[in-house]
Fold this sequence. Notes:
Layout: H1 13-38, H2 45-67, H3 76-84, H4 90-101, H5 130-137, E1 146-147, E2 157-164, H6 168-184, E3 188-196, H7 204-218, E4 223-227, E5 231-233, E6 247-248, E7 252-253, E8 269-273, H8 274-279, H9 293-303, E9 317-320, H10 335-338, H11 342-345, E10 357-363, E11 368-373
Parallel strand pairs: 2-3, 2-4, 3-11, 7-9
Antiparallel strand pairs: 1-3, 4-8, 5-9, 6-8, 10-11
Helix pairs in contact: 1-2, 3-4, 5-6
The structure holds 6-aminohexyl-uridine-C1,5'-diphosphate (UDH) and manganese (II) ion.
Amino acid sequence: xxxxxxxxxxxxxxxxxxxxxxxxxxxxxxxxxxxxxxxxxxxxxxxxxxxxxxxxxxxxxxxxxxxxxxxxxxxxxxxxxxxxxxxxxxxxxxxxxxxxxxxxxxxxxxxxxxxxxxxxxxxxxxxxxxxxxxxxxxxxxxxxxxxxxxxxxxxxxxxxxxxxxxxxxxxxxxxxxxxxxxxxxxxxxxxxxxxxxxxxxxxxxxxxxxxxxxxxxxxxxxxxxxxxxxxxxxxxxxxxxxxxxxxxxxxxxxxxxxxxxxxxxxxxxxxxxxxxxxxxxxxxxxxxxxxxxxxxxxxxxxxxxxxxxxxxxxxxxxxxxxxxxxxxxxxxxxxxxxxxxxxxxxxxxxxxxxxxxxxxxxxxxxxxxxxxxxxxxx
Length: 378
Ligand code: UDH
Ligand code: MN
């Protein structure tokens, strides 16, 4: 069950007063009706006709009342039930709740978030501790690193998915910078760290597929940002949301002298809507070790007739935490060769052929850690 934004309890005095009126009129109506049934033999004709007329008039008034918008204050409990059942879309839900409460609905968040800062100073200070990070990031977060803007309805429900193993220090910096940025960007988001269980060969793309499936079990995300754990944007105008075409966001990394390492590069941080992701059957599951899985993603996109959108290189600047190549993620010289077969394999290798074993889901206050066995070959 998705954890939904708390909605305010009805606190409107006018609504309570209307409720009591409605209840008393209904009681009076029943009382008259009973009188008519029990004493009809003892009543004279004129009194009987009078009572019938009064009952008819009352029925009419009640019908009008029930038909009227504000009479729904009476039924807020029933509406809450259908909300809990998830039958009503978010936007409609907010507006109905506000109507019951007698308050005006939250407006949609504006297309350009008002609180952005532009260029940011990013320093990966070794002295930064996890408790510093918690203190500076936990504000208004729900368990598992979930957030929704408080004063408007976000237009983007984004699962941020991070492939991960043994990079605690990088995750710390990522959380320190990204939570405040995502909040300023007014995203309805959740952070999912997909931890590859065991010591087998690393598989970045398969972990991203797991993140897609697991995050959707929790909430109706419509956009997925797939981000390496060591990449922090240097400008918060690079929005973590989806666009009309799949988006490559990390276009100017410090590691590559703030430019694309090659023309069709699609690595680091990318954003795909649910529809875009499904069109390409997700990512490949068979790129073990380092290299070429991001080029396969790019091929899938172009093979399906889509283009890649990118921010300009000023907005798309990223800083990467310096690191050596990890053990069990050595360059795999077989990987680039697989790119010749993407057109043939992409429809049968991807989200529709994903097999993994879920080990554990841990809810930290800053993220959801999904520990998974992806059946590494060795
Ligand atoms: N990762 C881990 N643990 C590992 C290995 C990888 O968490 O042991 C994750 C992590 O999120 C990392 C990502 O996988 O950021 C990518 O691995 P990397 O950081 O070693 O990759 P690298 O910095 O990538 O080398 C930069 C772009 C490479 C160009 C791509 C050419 N196709
Ligand atoms: Mn890296």
